[in-house]
Write a structure and sequence with these properties.
Length: 198
């Protein structure tokens, strides 16, 4: 009975010894093969990107993909709607002047997050939306004469999926008024689009 117990114990020791070498056998003697194990590690990061690009029927958007810096030129605009703005910029008479609009494309990309949808918001920096520069407009359609952009981020889509392409309209309302605050000249309007994933 004791001999059987000893034999059984020795068999278990041999089995565990072989199991230990299965992970990485390394150097062997009197054998025709061996193996070595390579354990790989990688730290998976979250990735998040929001591209702004030219819409199929919109004015040209400039900028390098992944840079976060883009631009669009509406061309020559005025409060009387005279002349011709940039290609694919539409002008429409509105109360107090003319509205110039064009569609743009937003493409959301994200990976590695627990949440399955993202939120895209937009705002115009407070210092940029004051005085005569309060002419920027943005919305889901060409009818964007509702008012100036908020100075704090405001959601425009709270259920954006990875890779989703969104059409937005941007533009400028040019007043037909005169006076020191409505003088002609170059105007720069910054729209800040933010993507957030929970």
């Amino acid at each position: 009975m004791n001999i059987r117990k000893v034999s059984y114990a020795m068999a278990l020791v041999a089995m565990f010894a072989f199991a230990g070498t299965a992970a990485a056998q390394g150097t062997v003697f009197d054998s025709t093969s061996t193996f070595s194990n390579l354990a790989m590690t990688a730290t998976v990061q979250t990735a998040l990107n929001l591209e702004i690009s030219t819409h199929a029927s919109g004015a040209a958007v400039t900028g390098t993909a992944g840079s976060g810096a883009f631009g669009i030129n509406l061309g020559n605009v005025n409060g009387l709607g005279l002349g011709t703005p940039s290609t694919n910029v539409t002008k429409a008479a509105v109360t107090g002047g003319f509205l110039y609009t064009t569609p743009i494309t937003l493409t959301a990309s994200y990976s590695g997050f627990a949440g399955a949808v993202a939120t895209i918001s937009v705002h115009q920096p407070a210092a940029d939306g004051a005085g005569p520069v309060a002419m920027a407009r943005e919305g889901a359609s060409a009818d964007i004469d509702a008012g100036t952009l908020p100075a704090t981020a405001t959601s425009i889509n709270a259920a954006v999926t990875n890779g989703q392409v969104i059409t937005r309209y941007v533009g400028a309302k040019v007043l037909n008024a005169n006076g020191s605050t409505n003088q002609a000249g170059l105007r720069t309007m910054n729209l800040v689009y933010t993507i957030s994933v929970p």
